[in-house]
């Protein structure tokens, strides 16, 4: 069960993550892909994709070309 944890210094509340679904095999498979050089290399241009913004609108990476972009990934589980 996720419980409300203390807030960060910025005042944003934190929730405890549930990592019960995580398995060592997932970590090993991801590590193997990294060693083989799969995925986007650091410093290379990211492929275009579309995601839902926190506001609910759809955002395409190509529409943000030329501007700084930060992708923040987290788990809601």
Spatial order of the strands forming the largest sheet? 1-2
Order of secondary-structure elements: HEE
- C-alpha Rg, in Å? 17 Å
Biggest sheet statistics = 2 strands, antiparallel
Please report which band the strand proportion falls in: under 5%, 5-15%, 15-25%, 25-35%, 35-45% or over 45%. 5-15%
Q: Helix fraction? A: 10-25%
Low-confidence stretches: 1-7
Shape: flat
Mean pLDDT: 75
Helices, by number, come to 1
Report the strand count.
2
Terminal CA distance reads: 10 Å
Verbal overview:
By secondary structure, the protein is an alpha+beta fold. About 15% of the residues lie in helices and about 10% in strands. A two-stranded antiparallel ribbon has the order 1-2. Residues about 1-5 have low confidence and may be disordered.
């Amino acid at each position: 069960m996720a419980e409300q944890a203390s807030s960060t210094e910025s005042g944003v509340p934190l929730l405890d993550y549930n990592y019960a679904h995580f398995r060592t095999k997932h970590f090993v498979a991801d590590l193997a892909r990294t060693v083989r050089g799969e995925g986007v290399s650091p410093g290379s241009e990211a492929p275009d994709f579309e995601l839902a913004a926190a506001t609910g609108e759809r955002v395409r990476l190509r529409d943000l070309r030329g501007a700084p972009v930060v992708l923040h990934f987290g788990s809601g589980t």
